[in-house]
Q: What sequence folds into this?
């Protein structure tokens, strides 16, 4: 059975064909990147100049980052919101996941069903009362409010709970006999074991928060608090037909995420695959 | 599970009743402490608001006027919905948009089969097709807006060189706007389905294909009789999550069309947003939210029933 690995001609051909398909699939990204490097007059030149003949990258990106609507400010806002949301969400979800899987208490089963049931609620269905509540509590138009909105994730709790269940109860019982309480078991034994799952969830949560447009749109008003997605939309409205600038902004909005994704690629893809196959 | 193990402990330790109840009490407290941040959070951010939505759907209230102006009007909001053209258009558009789901799934399954078995550079392809899914919808929408530019956009320039004299004006043409959004949505979602399908394919036992090879089966036969039936639980999962996700599409509409031209791209979530946050009509928007909730809720119920019936192994 085990033959030396040989190059398979059929496989090479389908790789080449699929490679061209993937390039076609990614053309919008390539177009975005190449346009962000051009001068305005060359944007709609036809046939399309994939490699710009006249470069204007420095001034385009300078205008986006340090112009009238400086992206560094919105970047900072987005980083703040995404990092805080991810941290709080990971802590809250893993605590709840441990409680729902490894602490045997009668109310747990019921409470878990309630938590799961809220997952069926489409987020937009509770938007209006959320908005009214936020006005009332003074959380409207604050970063704290926005962070709290993303911090209580049923999906995260469910996902991490699946992994905690996988830890053998003997581990926990042995620690208990040694006199460790649940708090110590959680920090010292359970959490380190499920660390890859926590990493997967953290990356996904970061990406989702970074990309979120709807919540910032509804819950933020002050320009200085805008996240990168809101800024992107505002920038597009203001700069109307300066397509090079808009594309430079789009590249800037996508790039950090792409880096996070490529660094954590395996985690993200495995996490999604796992969630999908288990249902 | 939890209640079971508690009852066995009970039988075993009946004699040490006092000690047992003390331990159980502390387990209860510890358990509650662990889950309380989550419970508190979703109570305030999800549970309370969704209950409020159901109550406010029976009210006539403009948010700016203060709570004393609130009037209870029974089912009037829902009656009004039935004759609201924009609402009906939204429901129809949501229904049409569901077609993106099977199309996405077919493309993804096709790609998944090729990537799973027949190519080198597997992880490159996974990342490449997954890129639109992780990119910000706002940035993507803006790029497509320019690509779809009616006269000078690259897409129409290519179509014109191919000899099509009057290519559609895409997002500014009422007949093509929804289709344009659907194309972008499919492009975004393929990566997700692809990853899930590849994982699903890898869980199919290889022996089945080897046995079919020995019988001299061709690829189509293997697809029809092995791959397709054995991947059906994954397909079912993707179908349901895809339909639910199609009800939540908001960013694309908000950035590209704002429901226009001529309401051709309005959908439930967008209509809700307009009524709630542009017209500040809390009662009416809540009624739309209730309808949205009921749609998603019934799809979830179908999933629960279907999952039991449609598992092929």
A:
């Amino acid at each position: 059975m085990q033959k030396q690995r040989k190059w398979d001609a059929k496989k090479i051909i389908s790789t080449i064909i699929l490679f061209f398909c993937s390039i076609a699939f990614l053309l919008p990204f390539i177009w975005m990147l190449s346009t962000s490097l051009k001068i305005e007059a060359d944007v709609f030149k036809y046939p399309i100049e994939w490699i710009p003949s006249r470069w204007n990258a420095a001034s385009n990106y300078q205008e986006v980052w340090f112009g009238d609507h400086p992206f560094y400010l919105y970047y900072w806002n987005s980083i703040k919101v995404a990092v805080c949301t991810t941290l709080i969400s990971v802590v809250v979800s893993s605590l709840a996941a441990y409680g729902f899987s490894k602490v045997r208490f009668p109310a747990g089963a019921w409470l878990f069903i309630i938590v799961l049931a809220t997952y069926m609620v489409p987020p937009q269905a509770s938007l209006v009362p959320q908005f009214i509540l936020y006005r009332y509590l003074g959380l409207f138009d604050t970063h704290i409010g926005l962070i709290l909105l993303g911090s209580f994730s049923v999906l995260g709790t469910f996902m991490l709970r699946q992994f905690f269940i996988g830890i053998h109860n003997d581990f926990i019982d042995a620690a208990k006999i040694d006199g460790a309480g649940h708090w110590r078991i959680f920090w010292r034994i359970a959490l380190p074991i499920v660390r890859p799952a926590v990493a997967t969830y953290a990356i996904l949560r970061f990406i989702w928060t970074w990309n979120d447009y709807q919540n910032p749109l509804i819950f933020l008003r002050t320009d200085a608090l805008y996240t990168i997605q809101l800024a992107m939309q505002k920038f597009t409205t203001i700069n109307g037909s300066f397509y090079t600038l808009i594309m430079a902004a789009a590249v800037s909005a996508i790039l950090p995420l792409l880096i996070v994704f490529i660094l954590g690629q395996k985690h993200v893809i495995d996490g999604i695959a796992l969630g999908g196959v288990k249902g | 599970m939890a209640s079971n193990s508690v009852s066995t402990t009970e039988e075993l330790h009946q004699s040490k009743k006092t000690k047992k109840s003390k331990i159980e009490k502390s387990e209860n407290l510890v358990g509650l402490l662990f889950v309380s941040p989550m419970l508190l959070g979703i109570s305030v951010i999800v549970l309370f608001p969704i209950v409020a939505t159901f109550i406010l759907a029976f009210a006539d209230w403009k948010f700016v006027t203060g709570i004393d102006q609130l009037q209870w009007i029974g089912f009037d909001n829902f009656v009004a919905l039935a004759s609201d053209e924009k609402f009906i258009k939204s429901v129809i558009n949501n229904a049409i948009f569901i077609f993106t789901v099977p199309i996405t799934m077919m493309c993804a399954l096709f790609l998944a089969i090729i990537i799973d078995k027949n190519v080198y550079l597997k992880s490159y392809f996974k990342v490449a097709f997954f890129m639109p899914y992780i990119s910000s919808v706002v940035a993507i929408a803006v790029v497509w807006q320019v690509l779809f530019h009616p006269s000078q956009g690259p897409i129409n320039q290519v179509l014109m060189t191919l000899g099509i004299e009057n290519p559609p004006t895409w997002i500014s043409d009422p007949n093509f706007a929804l289709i344009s959004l659907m194309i972008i949505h499919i492009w975004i979602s393929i990566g997700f389905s692809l990853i899930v399908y590849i994982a699903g394919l890898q869980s199919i036992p290889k022996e089945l294909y080897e046995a079919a090879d020995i019988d001299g089966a061709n690829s189509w036969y293997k697809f029809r009789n092995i791959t397709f039936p054995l991947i059906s639980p994954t397909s079912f999962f993707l179908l349901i999550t895809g339909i639910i996700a199609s009800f939540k599409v908001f960013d694309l509409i908000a950035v590209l069309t704002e429901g226009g031209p001529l309401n051709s791209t309005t959908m439930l979530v967008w209509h809700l947003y307009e009524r709630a946050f542009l017209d500040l009509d809390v009662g009416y928007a809540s009624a739309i939210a209730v309808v949205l909730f009921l749609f998603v809720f019934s799809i979830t119920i179908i999933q629960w029933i279907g999952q039991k019936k449609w598992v092929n192994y």
Summary: The first helix of chain B runs from residue 2 to 12. Chain B touches chain A through 100 residues (CB under 8 Å).
